[in-house]
Amino acid sequence: MRRNIAGQKTKQAQSRRKLLARVKPLEKPKSRAEKIKFRFLPVERSARYVLAARGLSIGYQGSPLVHSIQFEVQRGERWAILGPNGSGKTTLLRTLIGARSPIEGELEWNQSLDI
User: Residue 59 burial (CB < 10 Å; 0-12/13-18/19+)?
Assistant: First the structure.
């Protein structure tokens, strides 16, 4: 702003200077006397496995997408579901949450699991 005050952009620099002169400084917010406290209750650890699938076939009646899936998700594990379009990723997730029924097989969630 200072270098443009006498140059080509004089009007713009003067306008900004006036605008800054009109701006009122903000007051510093008052600090809170009380402190925010958090307390987290200990959580009961779940069993070793969280989810188990045995012989699971998913898809639609007459055209299953995947046959005989077998896996076990253990406590603390992180999984990724990867595959090309139409391979059954969303259908698997819908089956896991109970929105679709499996065609065959068994899907077992841990009893002490809280979602």
Answer: middle
Sign (positive/negative) of CA torsion 13, 15, 18, 22? negative
| Dihedral over alpha carbons 18, 21, 23, 27 (to 10 degrees) | 170
Q: Is the pTM of this model over 0.90?
A: no
Cα pseudo-dihedral 89, 90, 92, 93, rounded to 10 = 120
Residue ranges covered by each domain of the chain: 49-109
**Is domain 49-109 annotated with CATH 3.40.50.2300?**
no
Report residue 53 as tokens. 């699938």
The full length of the chain comes to 115
3-class SS shares of the chain: helix, strand, coil, % to 5: 20, 25, 55
Q: Which pLDDT tens digit goes with each residue over 49-91?
A: 899 999 999 998 888 898 899 999 998 899 999 999 989 999 9
* Closest C-alpha among 90, 56, 58, 91 to residue 73: 56
